[in-house]
Each structure stands twice: as C-alpha cells, then as structure tokens.
Amino acid sequence: MTLMWDSVVMLLSQVVFFLFGWFFFMKQLFRDYEVHKRLVQILFSITFALSCTMFELIIFEIIGFLEPSSRFLHWKLGLYSILFVLIVVLPIYFSFSLFRSITFSNVQLIVLVRRKWILPLTVVSWIIFIYFFWKIGDPFPILSARHGIFTIEQAISRVGVIGVTVMAMLSGFGAVNAPYCYMTIFMRPVGQVQIAQMERKLMHTMEMIVAKKRRLCILEKEVALSAFTQGSDSQGGLLQKLWGSVSFSSSSLKDQISTLNSEIIPLEELSRYLFLEIVELRNMRVCASILMKKFLRF
C-alpha cells in the first residue's frame, strides 16, 4: 500500500513537470515556433519531466519523504528512462528528422529516398553515434573492473563526461553572452523619438536607392537604344560621320551606370544596417517596458 501511494505521488509530480515543460516550451522557449511538430514538444516535455523527477528524488532523500525502498525503485526507473531517452530516442529522432528534411529537385526521387533510405540511414547514423559514444569513455578512468559492459554505470559515466563538457562550454558562452545581453539595462532608455529618427533615415536611404535604381534603368535603356542605333547604321554618308559621337555617348552612359552601381551598393548596406538598428532599438524598448512592469509589480 505504501509503494502504491508513493507511486501515485511520483506519477502526479511527473504529470505536473510534463505540463510545466509543455507550457514552458510553448510560451517561453519557442513562442515563435512555427513548425508545430508535436513529437518535438513531447520529447522535450518528457526529458524535462524526467530531469525534474531526478532532482525531486534528491530533495525527497534529503528531507526523508517517501519510503527508502520506494525512492530507490523510482530512482532506478527514472535513471533508466532518462538514459534511454538520451542515448536511444533523441539521437534516433534527430537523425530521422535530419534525413527526412533532405530535399531534391525531382519529386519522384524525394518519395523514393524517403521510403527506402531514411530508416536505414537513421539506423546507421545511430550505430555510428553509439560507437563514438562508447569510445569517448575509453581514455577516462571512470569505471572499476567489476562493472560489466552492459551495465548502467557504463552509460552514466559517459553521459557524465559529455554533460560536464557541454556544461563547461555553455558556461563559457553564458559568461560572455550574459553581460552583452543585460548590460543594456544600464544604458539610457530608448524613446519613440530615437526610433522615429532612425525610421526617417531608413526611409530617406530607401528613397535614394529607388531614385538611383530608376536612373540606372533609364541609362540601361539608353545604352540598349544606342546599341540598336549603331547596329542599324549603314556604312558611309552622314551616319558614318555620326558614329564617333554615338560611340562616345555610349561610353559615357556606361561610365554613369558603373558610377550608379558603385553608389547603390553602399546605400543598400546602409539600409540593412539601419533596419537592424531599428529592430534592436525596438527590442530594447520592449525589454525596458517589460522590466519596468515587473519592477512596478514587485
């Protein structure tokens, strides 16, 4: 009876963690997620729920909640489940999604590859992953001689090595990225006036680009017309005398076209820079308003 009650408590906690991971994925982590693959959300929620369950069992061990035998049973179940997800389910689904996303120009070839080669390629890639996953633990003295090959210690030791390595990389990235993202809090606030000024600059730049491209089109038409005129000229007479002036005019038009092209390229770069600046200013304004609301609510 005690085991059943403890199992109900653990099941309810896992359901709560699963729902929390589901809403966290939808509302916070990927709120602009437009692909809508339910299996991705389910796998994330399952992984999140199992991770929180392991942490919950550690807390239960400290405070003495639930029976010791029940805690040990659910600890082993959770450990086997999360190792199965990390080593088998997630790599297979990642490989399957990767090969399924490969597209070709021929539609019939797409169907043929999807039916015949996606599953074998997924299995082969998972076997390669298992090989490197196994070999990564050979240089490290993380096992004792009494542990067999197909024991849980083999998987935990390698997951631990990979996990510590990934956490160290993420810590280094966070140590650099966090000040870059949050030092803007101490900058002067961004008002609507600054955003409007940048938008006016962007509009003026776009108008200049449009005007120069319109002028470029006119010059290209004149060059094409002069080439047609040159082709229709006959030899001798008055038209032969005008050949030099027509050639000089065509050369002048080409120089103007080259000048306009050299002026349009930096203007387009400037327009992209101004657009990114406007987006950054708007994001800073939104972040400042959110922080102010949280501060006032607190």
UniProtKB/TrEMBL annotation:
Keywords: Membrane, Transmembrane, Transmembrane helix. Residues 149-216 form the Golgi pH regulator conserved domain. GO terms for molecular function: voltage-gated monoatomic anion channel activity. Signal peptide: none annotated. InterPro entries: Golgi_pH-regulator_cons_dom (IPR022535), GPHR/GTG (IPR015672). It catalyses: fluoride(in) = fluoride(out); iodide(out) = iodide(in); bromide(in) = bromide(out). GO terms for cellular component: Golgi cisterna membrane. The chain crosses the membrane at residues 12-30, 42-65, 77-96, 117-136, 156-178. It comes from the Eukaryota. GO terms for biological process: intracellular pH reduction. Belongs to the Golgi pH regulator (TC 1.A.38) family. PANTHER family: G-PROTEIN COUPLED RECEPTOR 89-RELATED, GOLGI PH REGULATOR A-RELATED. This is GPHR_N domain-containing protein. It comes from Brugia timori.
